[in-house]
Amino acid sequence: MGSGYQSSGHIRTVAILGTGLIGCSWGALFGAAGFKINLFDSKEGGGRRFEEFWASVADTLVELGIAADASVPDWQEFDSAAQAVASAEFVQESIPERLEAKQALYSGIEPHLPKSAIVATSSSGLRLSDLQEGWRDPGRIIIAHPFNPPHIIPLVELYGNERTDPDVLGVAREFYTRCRKQTITLKREVIGHVANRLQAALWREAIHLVADNVVSVRDVDTAITAGPGMRWAVMGPHMLLNLGGGAGGLQAYCEQFRDSYSLWWDDLGKPQLDNDTIAKLKAGIGEEIGSRDYNALRAERDAKLVALARAINTIDS
Ligand SMILES: NC(=O)c1ccc[n+]([C@@H]2O[C@H](COP(=O)([O-])OP(=O)(O)OC[C@H]3O[C@@H](n4cnc5c(N)ncnc54)[C@H](O)[C@@H]3O)[C@@H](O)[C@H]2O)c1
Q: For 195-311, which CATH superfamily applies?
Protein backbone atom coordinates (compact mmCIF):
# COMPACT_ATOMS: atom_id res chain seq x y z
CA MET A 1 0.00 0.00 0.00
CA GLY A 2 2.82 2.35 0.92
CA SER A 3 0.40 5.08 2.01
CA GLY A 4 2.92 7.02 4.02
CA TYR A 5 0.27 7.69 6.67
CA GLN A 6 1.89 7.66 10.09
CA SER A 7 -1.25 8.51 12.03
CA SER A 8 -5.00 7.92 11.97
CA GLY A 9 -5.80 11.63 11.64
CA HIS A 10 -7.06 11.27 8.05
CA ILE A 11 -9.77 8.74 9.03
CA ARG A 12 -13.23 10.30 8.84
CA THR A 13 -15.45 7.51 7.51
CA VAL A 14 -15.58 3.87 8.57
CA ALA A 15 -17.30 1.22 6.46
CA ILE A 16 -19.04 -1.53 8.40
CA LEU A 17 -19.46 -4.67 6.29
CA GLY A 18 -21.99 -6.97 7.98
CA THR A 19 -24.45 -5.49 10.44
CA GLY A 20 -24.99 -8.52 12.65
CA LEU A 21 -24.18 -8.79 16.35
CA ILE A 22 -20.59 -7.57 16.03
CA GLY A 23 -20.96 -5.15 13.07
CA CYS A 24 -23.80 -3.22 14.75
CA SER A 25 -21.80 -2.94 17.96
CA TRP A 26 -18.69 -1.70 16.11
CA GLY A 27 -20.85 0.74 14.12
CA ALA A 28 -22.38 2.15 17.29
CA LEU A 29 -18.94 2.58 18.87
CA PHE A 30 -17.36 4.26 15.83
CA GLY A 31 -20.45 6.47 15.34
CA ALA A 32 -20.35 7.45 19.01
CA ALA A 33 -16.66 8.30 18.62
CA GLY A 34 -17.56 10.80 15.88
CA PHE A 35 -16.85 8.86 12.68
CA LYS A 36 -19.25 8.75 9.74
CA ILE A 37 -20.54 5.22 9.24
CA ASN A 38 -21.07 3.56 5.84
CA LEU A 39 -23.10 0.36 6.25
CA PHE A 40 -23.55 -2.65 4.04
CA ASP A 41 -25.18 -5.99 4.80
CA SER A 42 -26.12 -8.57 2.17
CA LYS A 43 -29.42 -9.16 3.97
CA GLU A 44 -32.24 -6.59 3.71
CA GLY A 45 -32.73 -4.26 6.64
CA GLY A 46 -29.13 -3.70 7.76
CA GLY A 47 -29.73 0.01 8.34
CA ARG A 48 -32.89 -0.64 10.34
CA ARG A 49 -31.05 -3.21 12.49
CA PHE A 50 -28.29 -0.65 13.10
CA GLU A 51 -30.80 2.04 14.14
CA GLU A 52 -32.54 -0.37 16.51
CA PHE A 53 -29.20 -1.41 17.94
CA TRP A 54 -28.16 2.21 18.39
CA ALA A 55 -31.39 2.94 20.28
CA SER A 56 -30.66 0.05 22.63
CA VAL A 57 -27.06 1.12 23.42
CA ALA A 58 -27.01 4.91 23.05
CA ASP A 59 -27.45 5.54 26.79
CA THR A 60 -24.64 3.09 27.56
CA LEU A 61 -22.31 4.86 25.12
CA VAL A 62 -23.14 8.22 26.72
CA GLU A 63 -22.50 6.71 30.16
CA LEU A 64 -19.17 5.36 28.93
CA GLY A 65 -18.28 8.90 27.88
CA ILE A 66 -17.81 7.83 24.23
CA ALA A 67 -20.97 9.43 22.76
CA ALA A 68 -21.55 13.10 23.53
CA ASP A 69 -25.32 12.50 23.50
CA ALA A 70 -27.83 9.86 22.43
CA SER A 71 -28.57 11.42 19.02
CA VAL A 72 -28.18 8.98 16.13
CA PRO A 73 -24.70 9.21 14.57
CA ASP A 74 -24.07 10.13 10.94
CA TRP A 75 -24.67 6.88 9.03
CA GLN A 76 -25.64 5.82 5.53
CA GLU A 77 -26.63 2.46 4.09
CA PHE A 78 -25.29 1.34 0.69
CA ASP A 79 -26.53 -1.19 -1.88
CA SER A 80 -23.15 -2.88 -2.26
CA ALA A 81 -19.96 -3.41 -0.31
CA ALA A 82 -18.01 -1.72 -3.13
CA GLN A 83 -20.07 1.48 -2.74
CA ALA A 84 -19.79 1.38 1.05
CA VAL A 85 -15.98 1.25 1.01
CA ALA A 86 -15.43 3.73 -1.83
CA SER A 87 -15.46 6.75 0.52
CA ALA A 88 -14.11 5.05 3.67
CA GLU A 89 -10.61 5.38 5.05
CA PHE A 90 -11.12 2.42 7.39
CA VAL A 91 -13.16 -0.75 6.89
CA GLN A 92 -14.29 -3.08 9.69
CA GLU A 93 -15.44 -6.36 8.17
CA SER A 94 -17.78 -8.44 10.36
CA ILE A 95 -19.47 -10.97 8.09
CA PRO A 96 -19.82 -14.62 9.20
CA GLU A 97 -16.73 -16.65 10.04
CA ARG A 98 -16.34 -18.41 6.67
CA LEU A 99 -13.05 -18.05 4.80
CA GLU A 100 -14.53 -18.33 1.29
CA ALA A 101 -17.21 -15.71 2.04
CA LYS A 102 -14.66 -13.26 3.41
CA GLN A 103 -12.30 -13.85 0.47
CA ALA A 104 -15.15 -13.29 -2.02
CA LEU A 105 -16.11 -10.06 -0.27
CA TYR A 106 -12.51 -8.81 -0.33
CA SER A 107 -12.05 -9.45 -4.04
CA GLY A 108 -15.24 -7.45 -4.66
CA ILE A 109 -14.13 -4.44 -2.62
CA GLU A 110 -10.40 -4.22 -3.32
CA PRO A 111 -10.67 -2.31 -6.64
CA HIS A 112 -12.92 0.29 -4.94
CA LEU A 113 -10.88 0.99 -1.82
CA PRO A 114 -9.40 4.49 -1.50
CA LYS A 115 -5.61 4.44 -1.87
CA SER A 116 -4.67 4.15 1.78
CA ALA A 117 -7.78 2.54 3.27
CA ILE A 118 -7.15 -0.15 5.88
CA VAL A 119 -9.34 -3.25 6.04
CA ALA A 120 -9.66 -4.83 9.49
CA THR A 121 -11.42 -8.15 9.97
CA SER A 122 -13.22 -9.03 13.20
CA SER A 123 -12.52 -12.71 12.52
CA SER A 124 -12.44 -14.75 15.73
CA GLY A 125 -10.02 -17.34 14.52
CA LEU A 126 -9.25 -17.41 10.79
CA ARG A 127 -5.62 -17.08 9.76
CA LEU A 128 -4.50 -13.77 8.29
CA SER A 129 -2.28 -15.63 5.82
CA ASP A 130 -5.42 -17.36 4.43
CA LEU A 131 -7.43 -14.12 4.44
CA GLN A 132 -4.66 -12.42 2.43
CA GLU A 133 -5.00 -14.89 -0.44
CA GLY A 134 -6.40 -13.27 -3.58
CA TRP A 135 -5.51 -9.70 -2.57
CA ARG A 136 -3.54 -7.66 -5.08
CA ASP A 137 -2.25 -5.68 -2.10
CA PRO A 138 -2.35 -7.92 1.01
CA GLY A 139 -0.49 -5.23 2.95
CA ARG A 140 -3.69 -3.41 3.90
CA ILE A 141 -5.67 -6.18 5.59
CA ILE A 142 -5.18 -6.95 9.27
CA ILE A 143 -6.87 -8.89 12.04
CA ALA A 144 -8.63 -6.64 14.57
CA HIS A 145 -10.56 -9.01 16.78
CA PRO A 146 -12.93 -7.52 19.37
CA PHE A 147 -14.50 -9.15 22.39
CA ASN A 148 -18.28 -9.10 22.49
CA PRO A 149 -19.79 -6.53 22.90
CA PRO A 150 -17.19 -4.32 21.14
CA HIS A 151 -18.97 -1.09 22.11
CA ILE A 152 -18.20 -1.86 25.78
CA ILE A 153 -15.32 -4.33 26.11
CA PRO A 154 -12.07 -2.45 25.42
CA LEU A 155 -9.92 -5.28 24.02
CA VAL A 156 -8.90 -5.42 20.35
CA GLU A 157 -6.39 -8.08 19.29
CA LEU A 158 -4.29 -6.86 16.39
CA TYR A 159 -2.24 -8.97 14.05
CA GLY A 160 -0.30 -8.19 10.92
CA ASN A 161 2.39 -10.35 9.31
CA GLU A 162 5.45 -9.91 7.12
CA ARG A 163 3.20 -9.03 4.15
CA THR A 164 1.49 -6.24 6.13
CA ASP A 165 2.37 -2.66 5.19
CA PRO A 166 4.75 -1.34 7.88
CA ASP A 167 2.51 1.66 8.68
CA VAL A 168 -0.81 -0.15 8.91
CA LEU A 169 -0.69 -1.64 12.41
CA GLY A 170 0.43 1.64 13.94
CA VAL A 171 -2.34 3.60 12.24
CA ALA A 172 -4.94 0.99 13.24
CA ARG A 173 -3.67 0.96 16.84
CA GLU A 174 -4.03 4.73 17.03
CA PHE A 175 -7.49 4.63 15.43
CA TYR A 176 -8.78 2.09 17.98
CA THR A 177 -7.21 4.02 20.83
CA ARG A 178 -9.15 7.11 19.66
CA CYS A 179 -12.26 4.91 20.03
CA ARG A 180 -11.25 4.11 23.66
CA LYS A 181 -10.09 0.60 22.87
CA GLN A 182 -7.11 -1.20 24.40
CA THR A 183 -5.07 -3.09 21.85
CA ILE A 184 -2.67 -5.98 22.11
CA THR A 185 -0.50 -7.05 19.18
CA LEU A 186 0.24 -10.69 18.39
CA LYS A 187 3.84 -11.44 17.48
CA ARG A 188 3.00 -14.43 15.30
CA GLU A 189 0.03 -16.22 13.78
CA VAL A 190 -1.91 -18.63 15.96
CA ILE A 191 -5.45 -19.94 15.50
CA GLY A 192 -8.00 -18.34 17.84
CA HIS A 193 -5.69 -15.40 18.64
CA VAL A 194 -5.00 -14.91 22.38
CA ALA A 195 -8.19 -14.10 24.31
CA ASN A 196 -10.30 -16.83 22.67
CA ARG A 197 -7.60 -19.41 23.39
CA LEU A 198 -7.60 -18.33 27.04
CA GLN A 199 -11.40 -18.48 27.10
CA ALA A 200 -11.33 -21.90 25.41
CA ALA A 201 -8.87 -23.24 27.99
CA LEU A 202 -11.02 -22.06 30.88
CA TRP A 203 -14.32 -23.14 29.31
CA ARG A 204 -12.93 -26.59 28.56
CA GLU A 205 -12.30 -27.22 32.24
CA ALA A 206 -15.61 -25.62 33.26
CA ILE A 207 -17.44 -28.04 30.93
CA HIS A 208 -15.39 -30.96 32.22
CA LEU A 209 -16.28 -30.14 35.83
CA VAL A 210 -19.99 -30.07 34.94
CA ALA A 211 -19.88 -33.17 32.72
CA ASP A 212 -17.94 -35.04 35.41
CA ASN A 213 -20.58 -34.16 38.04
CA VAL A 214 -18.21 -32.10 40.18
CA VAL A 215 -20.37 -28.94 40.16
CA SER A 216 -23.51 -27.49 38.60
CA VAL A 217 -23.40 -24.94 35.76
CA ARG A 218 -24.54 -22.28 38.22
CA ASP A 219 -21.79 -23.10 40.71
CA VAL A 220 -19.00 -23.23 38.12
CA ASP A 221 -20.15 -19.80 36.88
CA THR A 222 -20.13 -18.49 40.47
CA ALA A 223 -16.66 -19.96 40.96
CA ILE A 224 -15.48 -17.51 38.29
CA THR A 225 -17.62 -14.42 38.93
CA ALA A 226 -17.19 -14.46 42.72
CA GLY A 227 -13.57 -15.57 42.56
CA PRO A 228 -10.85 -15.27 39.94
CA GLY A 229 -13.06 -13.41 37.44
CA MET A 230 -13.36 -10.49 39.83
CA ARG A 231 -9.58 -10.34 40.24
CA TRP A 232 -8.92 -10.75 36.51
CA ALA A 233 -10.79 -7.54 35.71
CA VAL A 234 -8.29 -5.72 37.91
CA MET A 235 -4.99 -7.45 37.13
CA GLY A 236 -3.87 -10.20 34.77
CA PRO A 237 -3.04 -13.72 35.99
CA HIS A 238 0.71 -13.18 36.12
CA MET A 239 0.47 -9.97 38.12
CA LEU A 240 -2.01 -11.55 40.52
CA LEU A 241 0.16 -14.59 41.09
CA ASN A 242 3.12 -12.29 41.55
CA LEU A 243 1.16 -10.98 44.54
CA GLY A 244 0.28 -14.56 45.50
CA GLY A 245 3.99 -15.20 46.04
CA GLY A 246 4.21 -12.54 48.76
CA ALA A 247 7.41 -10.54 48.93
CA GLY A 248 9.13 -13.20 46.82
CA GLY A 249 6.81 -12.45 43.92
CA LEU A 250 6.20 -14.71 40.95
CA GLN A 251 9.45 -16.62 41.50
CA ALA A 252 8.35 -17.65 45.01
CA TYR A 253 4.84 -18.49 43.78
CA CYS A 254 6.21 -20.74 41.05
CA GLU A 255 8.55 -22.53 43.46
CA GLN A 256 5.82 -23.03 46.05
CA PHE A 257 3.14 -24.32 43.65
CA ARG A 258 5.17 -25.91 40.85
CA ASP A 259 4.30 -29.47 41.93
CA SER A 260 0.63 -28.64 42.57
CA TYR A 261 0.17 -27.11 39.12
CA SER A 262 1.89 -30.07 37.57
CA LEU A 263 -0.65 -32.41 39.23
CA TRP A 264 -3.61 -30.15 38.34
CA TRP A 265 -2.55 -29.74 34.71
CA ASP A 266 -2.22 -33.50 34.34
CA ASP A 267 -5.73 -33.95 35.74
CA LEU A 268 -7.57 -31.36 33.59
CA GLY A 269 -10.33 -32.75 31.40
CA LYS A 270 -10.71 -32.87 27.63
CA PRO A 271 -14.48 -32.83 27.09
CA GLN A 272 -16.16 -32.63 23.68
CA LEU A 273 -19.33 -30.72 22.88
CA ASP A 274 -21.25 -33.93 22.15
CA ASN A 275 -25.05 -33.99 22.37
CA ASP A 276 -25.17 -35.33 25.95
CA THR A 277 -22.77 -32.65 27.18
CA ILE A 278 -24.68 -29.89 25.39
CA ALA A 279 -27.96 -31.17 26.91
CA LYS A 280 -26.41 -31.08 30.38
CA LEU A 281 -25.06 -27.53 29.88
CA LYS A 282 -28.44 -26.42 28.50
CA ALA A 283 -30.33 -27.79 31.48
CA GLY A 284 -27.87 -26.13 33.84
CA ILE A 285 -27.97 -22.71 32.16
CA GLY A 286 -31.78 -22.91 32.14
CA GLU A 287 -31.74 -23.17 35.93
CA GLU A 288 -29.26 -20.30 36.19
CA ILE A 289 -31.28 -18.04 33.86
CA GLY A 290 -34.56 -18.53 35.75
CA SER A 291 -37.23 -16.12 34.50
CA ARG A 292 -34.86 -13.57 32.89
CA ASP A 293 -35.20 -13.19 29.10
CA TYR A 294 -32.41 -12.38 26.59
CA ASN A 295 -32.91 -8.60 26.78
CA ALA A 296 -33.01 -8.60 30.57
CA LEU A 297 -29.77 -10.62 30.72
CA ARG A 298 -28.08 -8.34 28.18
CA ALA A 299 -29.15 -5.23 30.12
CA GLU A 300 -27.86 -6.76 33.38
CA ARG A 301 -24.50 -7.63 31.78
CA ASP A 302 -24.09 -4.20 30.20
CA ALA A 303 -24.99 -2.25 33.36
CA LYS A 304 -22.47 -4.25 35.38
CA LEU A 305 -19.80 -3.87 32.69
CA VAL A 306 -20.24 -0.09 32.61
CA ALA A 307 -19.96 0.06 36.41
CA LEU A 308 -16.86 -2.12 36.24
CA ALA A 309 -15.30 -0.01 33.48
CA ARG A 310 -15.79 3.05 35.66
CA ALA A 311 -14.32 1.31 38.71
CA ILE A 312 -11.19 0.18 36.91
CA ASN A 313 -10.77 3.50 35.14
CA THR A 314 -11.10 2.42 31.55
CA ILE A 315 -13.59 5.31 31.29
CA ASP A 316 -13.62 8.77 32.83
CA SER A 317 -15.39 8.87 36.19
N1 LIG B 1 -20.25 -13.30 18.01
C2 LIG B 1 -19.19 -13.04 18.71
O3 LIG B 1 -19.15 -13.17 19.95
C4 LIG B 1 -17.93 -12.53 18.03
C5 LIG B 1 -16.93 -11.92 18.80
C6 LIG B 1 -15.80 -11.40 18.15
C7 LIG B 1 -15.66 -11.53 16.77
N8 LIG B 1 -16.64 -12.16 16.04
C9 LIG B 1 -16.46 -12.26 14.59
O10 LIG B 1 -17.23 -11.26 13.95
C11 LIG B 1 -17.69 -11.72 12.67
C12 LIG B 1 -19.20 -11.58 12.60
O13 LIG B 1 -19.80 -12.36 13.63
P14 LIG B 1 -21.29 -12.06 14.16
O15 LIG B 1 -21.44 -12.86 15.41
O16 LIG B 1 -21.57 -10.60 14.17
O17 LIG B 1 -22.16 -12.75 12.98
P18 LIG B 1 -23.70 -12.44 12.60
O19 LIG B 1 -24.18 -13.65 11.91
O20 LIG B 1 -24.44 -11.92 13.79
O21 LIG B 1 -23.59 -11.23 11.55
C22 LIG B 1 -23.05 -11.37 10.26
C23 LIG B 1 -23.76 -10.39 9.33
O24 LIG B 1 -23.09 -10.40 8.07
C25 LIG B 1 -24.08 -10.38 7.04
N26 LIG B 1 -23.45 -10.92 5.83
C27 LIG B 1 -23.28 -12.20 5.46
N28 LIG B 1 -22.58 -12.28 4.29
C29 LIG B 1 -22.31 -10.98 3.94
C30 LIG B 1 -21.63 -10.39 2.83
N31 LIG B 1 -21.04 -11.13 1.89
N32 LIG B 1 -21.56 -9.04 2.77
C33 LIG B 1 -22.14 -8.26 3.74
N34 LIG B 1 -22.81 -8.79 4.80
C35 LIG B 1 -22.88 -10.12 4.90
C36 LIG B 1 -25.23 -11.20 7.59
O37 LIG B 1 -26.46 -10.90 6.93
C38 LIG B 1 -25.24 -10.77 9.05
O39 LIG B 1 -26.05 -9.64 9.28
C40 LIG B 1 -17.16 -13.15 12.53
O41 LIG B 1 -15.97 -13.16 11.81
C42 LIG B 1 -16.90 -13.57 13.97
O43 LIG B 1 -15.88 -14.54 14.08
C44 LIG B 1 -17.78 -12.64 16.64
A: N-(1-d-carboxylethyl)-l-norvaline Dehydrogenase; domain 2 (1.10.1040.10)
